Amino acid sequence: MKDTKPWLKPALELGPVLVFFLVFILRRGETTVIAGQEYSAFILATLVFIPALALTTAIQWRLTGRLAPMQVATLVLVIVFGGLSVWLNDPRFFKIKPTMIYLLFAAILGYSLIARRNWLQAVLSEALPMDAQGWRKLTFRMVMLFLALAAANEIVWRTMSETSWVYFKTFGLPVILFVFLMANAGLYRAHATEPSADDKGE
């Protein structure tokens, strides 16, 4: 893996989301005509978000030489559901995209628990060294988190305004994920392992 600045990865991941938010807020209540078709601010923001995410994902792959499976899955679902929203001029498809992503992640991690394969450990072990029991506990908690996030997304977009959903997607979900990671600090400490001799020699 190529060395990159520590701030670059989160900047690339958050960049498209902030672009979506700014386009929506700046054009909220207005319509944009493209090729004779009127689009709301939400659809316009979605139209901008799709290539922005594709670009930042390509940059990450170019800089690091690899992409996490979840990044690839997210990009595919964004293209599919975002594309449907733009093509059909219907924001509902893009709003259910987070639900599909979180259910997919929950299913993948849930299967890894049943199959007794620590896929989460394979992805994050370098940054977070823990024993096998710690990874099983964290995986189970993340399955529960993703199921709760899927349910929360459905409740918000179906019962609240479009603006409320945009704020929830842009700021609420990242805050929830951050709080979840911080709340598991005790788990990280209790199951922490020492770096291997090979790691120490690198």
TrEMBL record:
<dbReference type="Pfam" id="PF04279">
    <property type="entry name" value="IspA"/>
</dbReference>
<feature type="transmembrane region" description="Helical">
    <location>
        <begin position="166"/>
        <end position="188"/>
    </location>
</feature>
<feature type="transmembrane region" description="Helical">
    <location>
        <begin position="139"/>
        <end position="157"/>
    </location>
</feature>
<protein>
    <recommendedName>
        <fullName>Inner membrane-spanning protein YciB</fullName>
    </recommendedName>
</protein>
<keyword id="KW-1133">Transmembrane helix</keyword>
<feature type="transmembrane region" description="Helical">
    <location>
        <begin position="6"/>
        <end position="27"/>
    </location>
</feature>
<keyword id="KW-0812">Transmembrane</keyword>
<dbReference type="InterPro" id="IPR006008">
    <property type="entry name" value="YciB"/>
</dbReference>
<feature type="transmembrane region" description="Helical">
    <location>
        <begin position="100"/>
        <end position="119"/>
    </location>
</feature>
<keyword id="KW-0997">Cell inner membrane</keyword>
<feature type="transmembrane region" description="Helical">
    <location>
        <begin position="39"/>
        <end position="61"/>
    </location>
</feature>
<comment type="function">
    <text>Plays a role in cell envelope biogenesis, maintenance of cell envelope integrity and membrane homeostasis.</text>
</comment>
<keyword id="KW-1003">Cell membrane</keyword>
<feature type="transmembrane region" description="Helical">
    <location>
        <begin position="67"/>
        <end position="88"/>
    </location>
</feature>
<comment type="similarity">
    <text>Belongs to the YciB family.</text>
</comment>
<keyword id="KW-0472">Membrane</keyword>
